[in-house]
Amino acid sequence: MNRNIGQIIAEIDSAVLKGSPDTACGRLCIDSRQVGEGDAFVALRGTRIDGHAFIEAVLDAGATVIVAETEPQAALPEGVAWVRVTDSSKAAGLMAAAWYEHPSRKLKLTGVTGTNGKTTAVSLMFGLFQALGYRCGMLSTIGNRIGDQEFEATHTTPDAIRIQEMLSRMVEARCTHAFMEVSSHSAVQNRIEGLDFALALFTNITHDHLDYHGTFDKYILAKKSFFDRLGSDAVALVNADDRHAGVMVQNTAAEVQRYGLFHDARYRARILENSFDGMHLQIDGHDFYSPLIGSFNASNLLAAYAAGCALEEEPTRLLVELSRLGPPRGRFDYVRSDRGITGIVDYAHSPDALEHVLETLRDIRRAGQKIITVVGCGGDRDRSKRPVMAGLAARLSDRAILTSDNPRTEDPEAILDEMMDGLRIEERLNLLRITDRTEAIRAACMLASPGDLVLVAGKGHETYQEIAGVRHPFDDRAQLCIHLQPAL
């Protein structure tokens, strides 16, 4: 599919074109390795790599359009157009939207941001609207969906071009609604530029990603920038139980609506009963039952219901269909052994998420049931949360085992050393340190007695473990199923 450069830069106010606006390009690329004859290349300034360093290489590869934040250093080859922009990351989003003919304007697009709950909220909304009879799309950590088709996800939020491509495919598949996770990274990197959201949802914000953002205030501003982008025809739906909800929407042009379990809000719920059999809630005065567990999931269920109401669906029907939905993969996903031991797999990889899961287990366990927690922290990520997570595991569990998560390029032992820094001397007495994740899960299962709860936290839906930059097959749930079997 060819596009003329004049068409796809029309909405970029800062664009200065050298060359013909009729210059054709066959593809829009931000990865220099993908550029071929007749393509357009947008040079992005990344955290580690600057795309401007590859302009000469993409010209040699046959690129006909260069979009950059600099002027050309030499005369342009014949037939090549150069577009200078103020911010190439914003330009990439706007160009991708124009390239795919603005698919988000042809869908009701919902974006969900927050430290925790994004995946569950998006999955619930996708399942809910599918059950209501709509054809829907989803962009999520656990996978991208177009109706019943599933595609692998490599990032919480894809790059700007991939987002527009997927939304375009949803339009072609006659989808009417789309639901996507919006990470703080994607907001800062302008990957959501050029998207028209009907609804933006805020779940919560807690300690995470400070390795990237630097400070918690900058992390908050990254989330807030999503709501700053909204138009006056959008709805901003925020969790009234989070003290930062007001900050998120203080400059938004969108209509603000709130949901909450504990604070005054347009959409309200309260937990009447919470057990391993599920929850009994009251939502806007209606009795509601769900197989999901825990106050954090009560908030996610309420968010999905509130989103449905904000998108003008009938409340009673929303509750009926929502009650039939289970959790997404790797989110409080549990198995029970023949010995009566319950194993739980959860993606909890931030202090707040781990605390919520452990508090839920403490609330619903019966007298005499022990909680045994296996937890690690990822490499090449926010180091400041490591001692905090170890401390939470030690204090809120009867036994804790520190282990390797995805060490990536870091030394797993060094990561565990930093986790141990969060433990008091008396807490270390109740803790094991087993670097090998398989052995750690096996040890937890061996320590468990009938009725006990074994939590394996951090990786959730992931089916790999990344060690020294190489991904190896690994599935926490599969490991639990192996090691929870009765001893022979």
Overview of this structure, please?
An 11-stranded mixed β-sheet has the order 11-10-9-12-8-13-14-15-16-17-18, sandwiched between helices. It has a 6-stranded mixed β-sheet with strand order 19-20-24-21-22-23, with helices on both faces. A 5-stranded mixed β-sheet has the order 2-7-6-5-4. Helix content is 32%, strand content 23%. The protein folds into 3 domains: 3-86, MurE/MurF, N-terminal domain (Udp-n-acetylmuramoylalanyl-d-glutamate--2,6- Diaminopimelate Ligase, Chain: A, domain 1), CATH 3.40.1390; 103-322, Mur-like, catalytic domain (UDP-N-acetylmuramoyl-L-alanine:D-glutamate ligase, 3-Layer(aba) Sandwich), CATH 3.40.1190; 333-483, Alpha-Beta Complex (Protein-Tyrosine Phosphatase, Chain A), CATH 3.90.190. It contains 17 helices and 26 strands. With 488 residues, it is α/β, with parallel strands linked by helices. It is globular. The longest helix has 16 residues, at 295-310.
